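Consider a concrete sample entry:
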Amino acid sequence: MTGNHKDKTISRRRAIAVTGGTVAAGGLVAAGFQSAFADTADTTTDADATASASSTSSECMTLMTSVTEGPYYLDGALVRKDITEGKAGVPLTLRLTVVDATDGCTPVKGAAVEIWHCDAWGYYSGYTTANPGGSAPAESEEGDSANDQTYLRGYQVANANGVVKFETIFPGWYTPRTCHIHVKVHTGGEKEDGTYEGGKVNYTGQLFFADDIAEEIFTLDPYAKHTGSYTVLADDMVYDGGGAASGLLTLKAVHKKDPSKGYKGSLTLGVDPDAESTGAGSGGGGTPPSGAPTGAPPSDSPSPSASASS
């Protein structure tokens, strides 16, 4: 259950118009999203405003340290709340609050939060042939309708209280990294052609999951089809043990006795809106798994026509 890994930061650019809507899926996603997201309101609601005001006043935190972008980043993700595209997995509602850690943790209205992560078997969109390590079926065997260039990637723009929400699935893992979600906070740009353009990146980080919860999830279908040595938090080369300030999510089960119903994850991101992050960050990241990208992203995949959604 150990591993050493240093992600190599490689920035890339792609221009592709794709579907932003959710495709109906079998397995845990279809069964669990309704209950997992039943009480999830839009980020502009009064309920969010109240909750956000409370969280920023009680959870004002120090500036978060940027870490490596990793080898699987792609520019041009869509602005959308639901990033699943029909990918099977345990539902995850992600609620992130962006605050200015240099100014009393006031909400950063209009910040664009970008996330991306692997699917239940450890595959990233854009790089579906990269070996996740251990023993896993080929990504193509999942049988979903997700676009191989865009699934599990997306932006949301923070409301007046600095809050964004995403609907996704619990990530899988790849050797030798622990379970994680990548995140960037952008400011100064604007929505254009379904994505977010311009501005600068203020923060590059990763979100992490408690070992006991991750390991329980990985016993469920479809995660259980990926076997091998899973890296716990203490052995991960990016997570530094700093808890929430280092990206450790607060997780709440939708149903305590049935983890397959999903989780709600939350975290306050303390950033400096005047700073600029290169994506190199700290924490290394280790050597990417066999087959990980080393050059430009794929360009020979078909480009479906569709529109992004919020």
